[in-house]
C-alpha cells in the first residue's frame, strides 16, 4: 500500500497552479486537495498519476461566500469550515445538514467540498446536494474558465466534467427560496460511512402551506445522484395530508439500485422510499416553520 | 498501604507511554533498514507456470528478489504444523513462498528486498507471474461436496474428522436420547467469518550481526520463544545465537500466536544472507488476505428435551471452514465442540466435526477461538427449546445448569489441551440471578409493551458461556531484587496491550511487600526469559501471574532468611512492608530489601559503597560456613514455573436489549449487560477493559463483520472501507457486574478474562432480535439488509 512514483508539484498561487496543470494535466496530472479520496486510491495503486498538483497552498481558494443568491464555496474550503459556517447555513441549510453526514470529523477537517464534487462518488452527499439545488461548478484552465451546471457536471460514477488540466475553483449552491425547507436522511452501516441509501429533499410551500415544489436527490442508487421531482405525486396538499406514499412510490420507480456486499438492491429500493418520506416530511415541516418565523 | 495491590483497580502503567506516542511498535524500529515486499497470488487457486523478474531488475534501489527456488534446506519445506492431532489425518501447511500451486488469494509468491518499501513495491509491480487457473473451492458446504479439491491429495477436502460422544447416565447414546425424547427439534445454524484484525498488523525486523555471528529478530508476535526456536531450526543456527523480542505489539487477538509466519523465517534468512538488517511491515491489505481468519462454520443440530426444557440428547454436526491450510491444527473446532456445552448438564452429547479445506485464507484462532460458534449453537438451542415449550428463556437455562455443589464437574470430553474437560468451580445460578437483576429481565415485558404502544419494536436476549482458560503446559517467572532495591520481573510470554505490565507488577508488589513503583516488568524478550509458551487462550494472568507469584515467594523466603541472619531474628517473625524487612511488632529492627540484596551476593570487589557490606573482610559472613551455602545461589532472585493439571473454567452471562426499526430494519443495541466470573480479580478495571474490548469485537461479529468472498475466491472487502469493524459509535455502553468464584487449581485462585467479552455476543444479539421480531435468527452476523430480507420471507 505505497503509491507508485509520481512528480509532486506545489504551486504557490492559482496562476502557477493553472500553468502547472496546463503542462502536466494532459500527461496524467491529478489535483490533490484534501487527499481523503485520492490518497487511498494512490496507496492501493488504483490510481497511478504521473504528476500530483497539490493545491493546498492556494489559500485564496479557502473561501466560503454567502450572498442572497447562494453560497459559493472555494476549492480549498474544508468540509468542517463549510459545516460550521453560520452565514452559509442561513442561506442554504442543506449544506450543513448534508455535511454532518459526510464521514467523521477528522476527515471533514481535511476533505474539501469541491474535491468531493469532482470526485463524483454516487454515494457521496454533496453531489446530491448540488444536483438537488441545481448548483454549478466553476472550472478554470490557463486562459479561461467555465461554469458547469450540476445537471452536466456529473457524468458517471466517479466521473465529472472536469477535464485534464482543469481546476475546479469553486462551487455554487443556490440559496433556499422563501417558504421552503430541506432535509437529508440516510442510513449508513456505521456512523459516518457512505450511505446504503440517502435522500436529500427540498420542499417549497405556497402561501396556503400547500406543497408547491418538492424534489429529492438520492444517493447510492444510480451512477450519479438521482433527482426526482415529486411535486405532482405529493398532490399539492399541506404536509399533514400530502400523499407521501405516492411520492415514495415515484422515487422507487425512478432509481436503479444495485446489490453490493452491504445491501441487496431490493433493500436499497425499499430504504430509499422510506428515507424519501422522512426527508420530504422533514423538509415540509421545516418549510412551514420557516414561514411561521 | 502501598503494597497490598492485588484486587485494586490500579491504573494501567503502560498507558501514559502508549497513548502519548511513545510506544515502540515494530515499524518504529529499524528506521532506514532495507524493506521487503511480496508479490502475492491474485488467484484463489492456480498453478505457477513462470516467474519473470527481468523488468524489476532495473528498479533503482533493488537489493534482492527471491522465489521458492532460492530457498535452501528446511526453509524450502512446508512450515510447521504446530499442533498435530490424530484426527488431523490430512494436515497441510504452506511453504514460505509458494511452490508450484497457490491456494488462496494473497499467498506469497516472490519476496523483494529494496532500499525502502516504496521501491520494493515498485519492483513487485514489475514482476510477471504466469498462472494456470485452477477451479477455486469456496464455501464450506460446497467444499464438503468435493466436486473440486483444494489439495489434490486430500480426498473430500476433509483435513480432519472427529467425533466425541458422551452417553447419558443410563448409558444411552445421544442419537437414541434425541429420538426417544418427548420433544425434538432440528435446525441449521450458520456463522460467518471474521478476523482478529489488530490495529497493528504483523511485522518482522531482523538484524544479523556478522561480528557476533548472531541474529536478533523483533517480531510482532504472541510467542517470541517459539518463534526463536522455529527460526533457529529453519535457518540451522545454534539457539543461543538467536534472540527474539516482541516489542510493543498493537493487538494480537490470536492471529499472532500462529508462527512462524512465512515472513518470520524469510526476513531473518534474508538479513543473514545480506549480512545486515531487513524489515517487513504488513500492510492492511496484506493482513486481510495473507494472515488468518476465523469463525466460519455451518452447524446441523438435533436436540431432544423434556417438558421442563431439560436437554436429554444433543447431536451436533459441524462443518468447519479451515481455509487453505491448517498450521494451527484443529484447535478451533475442538474448542467449539467442547465448549459448546457451556454451563449445562446435557443428558447425552454427540459432536462431530469435519475440518474442510477451501481456497480462502487459513483459519486459526481469533479471540474466543471457536467458542462464539459453540455458544451460538447452544444458546440458539436453548432459545428454540423455550419457544417450543412456551417457557421463559432463563427458566430453560436454569433447568439445565450445573449446580454449585456439583464441582468439580466432568463433562466427559477431551479439551483443547488434550486433558479432560473438568470444570473446577463456578456458580451459574447466581450469575443468572445477577444478570436478570442487572438488565431487568422480569420487568421487560412491560417495557416491551410500552414501546410497542409508541410504535417501537424492542427485544431482549441473553447468552451464557463457560470458558476454559489458562491452558498449559506452563509459564515461568523470574524475579530479581537488585542492590538498588528495584524489583525486576520477567516472564517469557508476550503482551499485546492487555495490561500485563500493571497486573504482574501488582502481583509482585503484593507478594514481596514493595511499592509498585519499584517493580518493572519485561515480557516476551528471550534475552530475559527463554522458556515460555505464549499469550493466547486467556492464559497470561493465570499462567505467568501464578508463576511470578511463586517466584516472588521464593525470593521472599530467601530475603527473610538473609534478613533474619542480619537482624538475628527468626525468619518467621519477619514481615516486609514498603520494601523494608522488619520484625513484626518491632519496626526499628529492620533492614531494607536493597541491603538484603547486597548481602545476598558475597563479594570480593566493592564496585560501589553499598557493596562494601558484602565484601570478604566486612565480617558479614560466618567463618563456619561457606559464603554460599550448598543448594543456594548468589543474588536475591528466584525463578519458578506454574504448570496446571488442567484448565480453569471462567463463566459469564450477557444480556442485551435491542431496538429494530420497523421500516429501515436498522438494529440498535439499547443496553448491554455483563455478569462475569473470572475467579479472584487482580485488577477489576483491567478486567472490565478486557470485557469492553471483547464485547466491542463481539458486536462486530454480530452486526457488522464478514469476509465477503465471491465464487472466484476473491475477497471483496479487503479494506477497512468495506470490512466493517464497529466504531466507538456502534459499541453500546456496557454495564458489568462481577462474581468471584475462586479457582481451586492455582495459588492465586484466578481464572482468565482475555477472551470472555467476545464469546456470547452473537448469541445474545440474535436472541434479542428474535425476541423483537418474532423471526428465527439462525445466521450471524445480521445486517439491516438481511433483516429486511428475513421480514419479507416471514
Ligand atoms: C473514512 C472515510 C469516510 C468517508 N466518508 C464519506 C461520506 O460518508 N460521504 C462523502 O461524501 N465522502 C466521504 N469521504 C470522502 C471525503 O468526503 C473526501 O473529502 C472527498 O471525497 C474528497 O475531497 P478531498 O478534498 O479529500 O479530495 P481529494 O482526495 O484530494 O481528491 C479527490 C478527487 O478529486 C480531484 N480534485 C479534488 N479537488 C479538485 C479540484 N479543486 N479541481 C479538480 N480536481 C479536484 C482529485 O484529483 C481526485 O481525483 C470519506 C473519506 C474517508 C477517508
Automatic annotation (TrEMBL), chain A:
Keywords in alphabetical order: FAD, Flavoprotein, Oxidoreductase
Coiled coil: none
Single GO MF annotation: oxidoreductase activity
Domain of life: Bacteria
Cross-referenced Pfam families: CO_deh_flav_C (PF03450), FAD_binding_5 (PF00941)
UniProt domain FAD-binding PCMH-type: residue ranges: 1-178
InterPro entries: CO_DH_flav_C, CO_DH_flav_C_dom_sf, Diverse_Substr_Oxidored, FAD-bd_PCMH, FAD-bd_PCMH-like_sf, FAD-bd_PCMH_sub1, FAD-bd_PCMH_sub2, Mopterin_DH_FAD-bd
Record keyword Membrane present: no
Record SUPFAM superfamilies: CO dehydrogenase flavoprotein C-terminal domain-like, FAD-binding/transporter-associated domain-like
Stated name of the protein: Carbon monoxide dehydrogenase medium subunit
Organism: Sphaerimonospora thailandensis
Top-level taxonomy: Bacteria, Bacillati, Actinomycetota, Actinomycetes, Streptosporangiales
Automatic annotation (TrEMBL), chain B:
InterPro entries: Ald_Oxase/Xan_DH_a/b, Ald_Oxase/Xan_DH_a/b_sf, Ald_Oxase/xanthine_DH-like, AldOxase/xan_DH_MoCoBD1, AldOxase/xan_DH_MoCoBD2, AldOxase/xan_DH_Mopterin-bd_sf
Ranges where the record places region Disordered: 616-637
UniProt-listed PANTHER family: ALDEHYDE OXIDASE 1-RELATED, XANTHINE DEHYDROGENASE
Alphabetic keyword roster: Molybdenum, Oxidoreductase
Molecular function via GO: iron ion binding; oxidoreductase activity
Name listed for the protein in its UniProt record: Aldehyde dehydrogenase
Aldehyde oxidase/xanthine dehydrogenase a/b hammerhead domain ranges (all copies): 20-135
Gene3D superfamilies named in the record: Aldehyde oxidase/xanthine dehydrogenase, a/b hammerhead, Aldehyde oxidase/xanthine dehydrogenase, molybdopterin binding domain
Domain of life: Bacteria
Keyword field contains Transport: no
Source organism phylogeny: Bacteria, Bacillati, Actinomycetota, Actinomycetes, Streptosporangiales
Record carries keyword Translocase: no
Amino acid at each position: 500500500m505505497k503509491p507508485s512514483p509520481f512528480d509532486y508539484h506545489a504551486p504557490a498561487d492559482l496562476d502557477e497552479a493553472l500553468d502547472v496543470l496546463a503542462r502536466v494535466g494532459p500527461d496524467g496530472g491529478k489535483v490533490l486537495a484534501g487527499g481523503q479520496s485520492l490518497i487511498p486510491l494512490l496507496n492501493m495503486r488504483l490510481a497511478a498519476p504521473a504528476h500530483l498538483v497539490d493545491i493546498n497552498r492556494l489559500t485564496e481558494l479557502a473561501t466560503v461566500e454567502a450572498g442572497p443568491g447562494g453560497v459559493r464555496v472555494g476549492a480549498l474550503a474544508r468540509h468542517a469550515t463549510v459545516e460550521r459556517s453560520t452565514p452559509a447555513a442561513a442561506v442554504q441549510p442543506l449544506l450543513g445538514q448534508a455535511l454532518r453526514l459526510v464521514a467523521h470529523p477528522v476527515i471533514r477537517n481535511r476533505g474539501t467540498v469541491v474535491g468531493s464534487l469532482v470526485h463524483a462518488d454516487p454515494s457521496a452527499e454533496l453531489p446530491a446536494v448540488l444536483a438537488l439545488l441545481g448548483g454549478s461548478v466553476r472550472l478554470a484552465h490557463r486562459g479561461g474558465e467555465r461554469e458547469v451546471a450540476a445537471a452536466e457536471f456529473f457524468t458517471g460514477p466517479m466521473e465529472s466534467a472536469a477535464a485534464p488540466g482543469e481546476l475546479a475553483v469553486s462551487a455554487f449552491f443556490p440559496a433556499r427560496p422563501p417558504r421552503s425547507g430541506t432535509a437529508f436522511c440516510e442510513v449508513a452501516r456505521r456512523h459516518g460511512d457512505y450511505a446504503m441509501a440517502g435522500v436529500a429533499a427540498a420542499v417549497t410551500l405556497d402561501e396556503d402551506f400547500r406543497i408547491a415544489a418538492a424534489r429529492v436527490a438520492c444517493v447510492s442508487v444510480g451512477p450519479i445522484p438521482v433527482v426526482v421531482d415529486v411535486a405532482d405525486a405529493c398532490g399539492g396538499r399541506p404536509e399533514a395530508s400530502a400523499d407521501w406514499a405516492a411520492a415514495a412510490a415515484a422515487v422507487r420507480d425512478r432509481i436503479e439500485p444495485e446489490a453490493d456486499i452491504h445491501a441487496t438492491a431490493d433493500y436499497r429500493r425499499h430504504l430509499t422510499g422510506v428515507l424519501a418520506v422522512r426527508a420530504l416530511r422533514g423538509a415540509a415541516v421545516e418549510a412551514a416553520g420557516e414561514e411561521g418565523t | 498501604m502501598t503494597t497490598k495491590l492485588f484486587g485494586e483497580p490500579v491504573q494501567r502503567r503502560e498507558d501514559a507511554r502508549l497513548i502519548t506516542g511513545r510506544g515502540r511498535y515494530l515499524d518504529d524500529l529499524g528506521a532506514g533498514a532495507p524493506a521487503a515486499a511480496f508479490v502475492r497470488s491474485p488467484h484463489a487457486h492456480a498453478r505457477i507456470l513462470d516467474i519473470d523478474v527481468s523488468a524489476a531488475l532495473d528498479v533503482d534501489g533493488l537489493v534482492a528478489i527471491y522465489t521458492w527456488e532460492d530457498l535452501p534446506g528446511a526453509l524450502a519445506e512446508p512450515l510447521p504444523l504446530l499442533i498435530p492431532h490424530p484426527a488431523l489425518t490430512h494436515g497441510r501447511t504452506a511453504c514460505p513462498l509458494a511452490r508450484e500451486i497457490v491456494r488462496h488469494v494473497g499467498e506469497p509468491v516472490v519476496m523483494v528486498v529494496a532500499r525502502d518499501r516504496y521501491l520494493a513495491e515498485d519492483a513487485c509491480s514489475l514482476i510477471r507471474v504466469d498462472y494456470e487457473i485452477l477451479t477455486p473451492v469456496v464455501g464450506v458446504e460446497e467444499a464438503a461436496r468435493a466436486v473440486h479439491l483444494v489439495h489434490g491429495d486430500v480426498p473430500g477436502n476433509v483435513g480432519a474428522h472427529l467425533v466425541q460422544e458422551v452417553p447419558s447416565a443410563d448409558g444411552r447414546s445421544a442419537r437414541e436420547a434425541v429420538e426417544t425424547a418427548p420433544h425434538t427439534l432440528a435446525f441449521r445454524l450458520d456463522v460467518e467469518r471474521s478476523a482478529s484484525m489488530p490495529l497493528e498488523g504483523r511485522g518482522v525486523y531482523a538484524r544479523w550481526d556478522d561480528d557476533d555471528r548472531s541474529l536478533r529478530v523483533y517480531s510482532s508476535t504472541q510467542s517470541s520463544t517459539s518463534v526463536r526456536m522455529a527460526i533457529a531450526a529453519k535457518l540451522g543456527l545454534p539457539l543461543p545465537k538467536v534472540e527474539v523480542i516482541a516489542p510493543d505489539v498493537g493487538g494480537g487477538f490470536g492471529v499472532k500466536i500462529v508462527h512462524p509466519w512465512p515472513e518470520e523465517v524469510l526476513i531473518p534468512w534474508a538479513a543473514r544472507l545480506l549480512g545486515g538488517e531487513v524489515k517487513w511491515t504488513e500492510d492492511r491489505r496484506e493482513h486481510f488476505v495473507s494472515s488468518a481468519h476465523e469463525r466460519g462454520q455451518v452447524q446441523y443440530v438435533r436436540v431432544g428435551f423434556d417438558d421442563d426444557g431439560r436437554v436429554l440428547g444433543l447431536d451436533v454436526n459441524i462443518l468447519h471452514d479451515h481455509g487453505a491450510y491448517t498450521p494451527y491444527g484443529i484447535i478451533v473446532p475442538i474448542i467449539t465442540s467442547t465448549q459448546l456445552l457451556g454451563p449445562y448438564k446435557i443428558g447425552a452429547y454427540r459432536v462431530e466435526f469435519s475440518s474442510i479445506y477451501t481456497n480462502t485464507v487459513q483459519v486459526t484462532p481469533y479471540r474466543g477461538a471457536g467458542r462464539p460458534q459453540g455458544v451460538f449453537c447452544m444458546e440458539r438451542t436453548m432459545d428454540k427449546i423455550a419457544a417450543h415449550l412456551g417457557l421463559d428463556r432463563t427458566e430453560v437455562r436454569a433447568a439445565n445448569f450445573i449446580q454449585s455443589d456439583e464441582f468439580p464437574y466432568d463433562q466427559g470430553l477431551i479439551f483443547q489441551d488434550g486433558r479432560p474437560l473438568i470444570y473446577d468451580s463456578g456458580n451459574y445460578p447466581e450469575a443468572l440471578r445477577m444478570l436478570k437483576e442487572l438488565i431487568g429481565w422480569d420487568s421487560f415485558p412491560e417495557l416491551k409493551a410500552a414501546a410497542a404502544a409508541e410504535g417501537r419494536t424492542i427485544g431482549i436476549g441473553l447468552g451464557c458461556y463457560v470458558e476454559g482458560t489458562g491452558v498449559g503446559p506452563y509459564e515461568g517467572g523470574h524475579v530479581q531484587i537488585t542492590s538498588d532495591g528495584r524489583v525486576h520481573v520477567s516472564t517469557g510470554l508476550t503482551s499485546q496491550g492487555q495490561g500485563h505490565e500493571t497486573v504482574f507488577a501488582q502481583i509482585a508488589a503484593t507478594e514481596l511487600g514493595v511499592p509498585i513503583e519499584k517493580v518493572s516488568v519485561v515480557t516476551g524478550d528471550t534475552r530475559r526469559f527463554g522458556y515460555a509458551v505464549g499469550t493466547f487462550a486467556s492464559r497470561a494472568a493465570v499462567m505467568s501471574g501464578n508463576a511470578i507469584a511463586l517466584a516472588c515467594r521464593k525470593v521472599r523466603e530467601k530475603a527473610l532468611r538473609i534478613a533474619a541472619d542480619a537482624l538475628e531474628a527468626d525468619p518467621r517473625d519477619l514481615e516486609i512492608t514498603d520494601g523494608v524487612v522488619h520484625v513484626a511488632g518491632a519496626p526499628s529492627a529492620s533492614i531494607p530489601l536493597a541491603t538484603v540484596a547486597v548481602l545476598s551476593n558475597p563479594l570480593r570487589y566493592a564496585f560501589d559503597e553499598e557493596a562494601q557490606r558484602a565484601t570478604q573482610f566486612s565480617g558479614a559472613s560466618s567463618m563456619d560456613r561457606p559464603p554460599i551455602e550448598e543448594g543456594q545461589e548468589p543474588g536475591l532472585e528466584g525463578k519458578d514455573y506454574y504448570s496446571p493439571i488442567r484448565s480453569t473454567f471462567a463463566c459469564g452471562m450477557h444480556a442485551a436489549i435491542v431496538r429494530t426499526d420497523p421500516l429501515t430494519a436498522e438494529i440498535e443495541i439499547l443496553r448491554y449487560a455483563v455478569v462475569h466470573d473470572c475467579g479472584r480479580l487482580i485488577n477489576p478495571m483491567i478486567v472490565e477493559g478486557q470485557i469492553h474490548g471483547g464485547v466491542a469485537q463481539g458486536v462486530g461479529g454480530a452486526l457488522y463483520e464478514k469476509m465477503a468472498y465471491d465464487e472466484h475466491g476473491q475477497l471483496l472487502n479487503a479494506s477497512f472501507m468495506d470490512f466493517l469493524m464497529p466504531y466507538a459509535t456502534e459499541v453500546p455502553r456496557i454495564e458489568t457486574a462481577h462474581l468471584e468464584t475462586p479457582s481451586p487449581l492455582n495459588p492465586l485462585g484466578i481464572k482468565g478474562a482475555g477472551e470472555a467479552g467476545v464469546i456470547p455476543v452473537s448469541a445474545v444479539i440474535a436472541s434479542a432480535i428474535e425476541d423483537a421480531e418474532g423471526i428465527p435468527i439462525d445466521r450471524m452476523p445480521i445486517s439491516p439488509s438481511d433483516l429486511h430480507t428475513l421480514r419479507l420471507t416471514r
